[in-house]
């Protein structure tokens, strides 16, 4: 994800279930720019319904995992002159992920792929 510098654009507070993701998915988030440059990062609830969003103190070379389908998260506007870049993906955990699950009426349905490791 790219977030231009000196921008009022932001990612609103949400949980991924609003977009068709199920409880059996875990989010992984990797910063690709130093948050010292942009002074912004991903903010996440500590647990479902806690309403205690906190900034992830993840540095370059690290990865954060969180339960984004139920924990609300957001990214504030980037007021710096530097572009913020990050990579995120979700993993379905065997025993918790239902490959036949579908949610009608979501804002966007995502294709699901299975990767055997």
Task: Quickly count the domains.
Answer: 1
Q: Note the beta-strand portion.
A: 25-35%
The spatial strand order of the largest sheet comes to 1-8-3-6
Number of strands: 8
Radius of gyration: 15 Å
Percentage of residues in helical conformation: under 10%
Major sheet description: 4 strands, antiparallel
Question: Uncertain runs with pLDDT below 50, 5 residues or more?
Answer: none
- Helices, by number, come to 1
Protein name: Aspartyl/asparaginy/proline hydroxylase domain-containing protein
Organism: Haptolina ericina
SSE arrangement:
Elements: E1 2-3, E2 11-14, E3 25-31, H1 35-38, E4 43-44, E5 54-55, E6 64-66, E7 73-75, E8 84-92
Antiparallel strand pairs: 1-8, 2-7, 3-6, 3-8, 4-5, 4-7
Question: Overview of this structure, please?
Answer:
The chain is mainly β and 117 residues long. The protein has one domain (2-92). It is 3% helix and 27% strand. It has one helix at residues 35-38; strands at residues 2-3, 11-14, 25-31, 43-44, 54-55, 64-66, 73-75, 84-92. Strands 1-8-3-6 form a 4-stranded antiparallel beta sheet. It has a 4-stranded antiparallel beta sheet with strand order 2-7-4-5, with no helix packed on it. The longest helix has 4 residues, at 35-38. The two termini are 25 Å apart.
Kindly list the characteristics that best describe this protein.
single chain; 117 residues; mainly beta; four-stranded antiparallel β-sheet; 1 helix; globular; Aspartyl/asparaginy/proline hydroxylase domain-containing protein
